[in-house]
Amino acid sequence: MLFENIIFWSMYALLWAAVVRYDVHMFQLNSYRLERYARWFGSGHKHIRSLIILALAVVGFFANSKFLPFSAIFMLVLACREFTSKYKTPIVYTMRVKRLLLTTLLLTAAALGITWTFVPAAMPCVALLLIATPALMLAANIVNKPIEAAISRWYYNDAKRILRSMPDLTIIGITGSFGKTSTKNYLYRILSERYNVLMPPGNFNTTLGVVRTVREHLKPYHQIFIVEMGAKQRGDIKEICDLVHPTIGIVTAVGEMHLETFHTVDNIFKTKFELIDALPADGMGVINLDSEHIASRYGDKPNIVSYGVNSTKANYRATNIAYSAAQTSFDIAINGSAREGYTTRLAGRGNILNLLAAIAVADRLNIPESLQKRAIRQIEQIEHRLSVKRAAGGVTILDDAYNSNPTGAQMALEVLSGFEREQGGRRIVVTPGFVELGERQAALNRELGAQIADACDIAIVVNRTNRQALLEGLSDKDFPEDKIKVVDSLNEALAFLTITLQRGDVVLYENDLPDSFK
Q: Residue 202 above 80 pLDDT?
């Protein structure tokens, strides 16, 4: 019996580690925000696991001693399944995560002692604690909150000290509902022709991400610091601006993104324009007039430069755009004058817009036209942002899988619709639709379904989150049912494509839901 108890409690410890790691991982993916985690939790993602654990407890209550070996095996299977699961965005073991795991362990140990006093039976006690793991993890977060706040405050002040020590540093802020990261990369490549430039690695676009970039990467020899600024709610951009004090600001777009937290497009507009409001009197704001929500709300302001492809009012406007499999070419009209002969490996109107924003800033910082053109010719495609790849068998992949939005998806579908392909080649869209759009999510995904019907020959709808809305949009356009494939995962979609693709096909991957959506 002693041996069975040792095995049982060892398996419980293993399963607990798997369960709490999963809960902390999902909390991290939801930006450590209680309201976002609560929405995810309330959507039913954990209910099946909870029911299994509860059933284990009920059986164990009536046959506790005899049930221990079986329950140990069951817990081992559940733990192994969790530890071997692959996630699109793996957990990052930051110091905050390590502190959260440690505090959760201590609270679980205390809860085990208390529970055992009232329920001195192994299985019910263990099951109750496993079900309570999310609550214990959130309680640990509350316990750690003063510590995390103090640590963050020290890091923040240290970053401010570093920035104050570099008064000649030119700081450029970039924000927008989409296009931030691409614009950041393009601008970095062009400005690097003349200056020593720093940009945040990866997707470091929160206040803490900027703080970490300053403390770990900013050096005295840097001349320009490009800061990507993300936001999930009002005040997020202002908080970053109060830290870095940009003198140049780019707003790439205002669109229907993160409506679960912003609630209205007006709130999104005001948040993105916190960057423009933070610029000094001699600063420079750069805005995209092709963005409907910017063009309709923008009033004449000093020191503002606009850009666009469709907008005839833009100061920088791309003209004579031509796409081919090898490159995209375009000219630029700048306040009535013309520049000719820009070429790039990038595809799509969205990428042209991002290049225009970078060119406007490059002009401000005196980068010669010849160096701009050289840099733009050499810019590599950014993975998952409408990058074009040639696959085996004469198939072309348009990879736009990162963080899709209604406007960006429409631009990607424009590229797919007009993409040169061999005779007999089909246009295929693979998408799970959009998320985090609040009350507008169903309507916008239905619109996406209708747009897909106009742009492709085969539609593959991935996952369950937006399935009904996408299918309704396809149906609105009388898209043939035999050209629609419904799958539960990206892996299932890839398996279907393996046996379906033929020479000349062009496949667009539009969005890839994070692990907190199914």
A: no
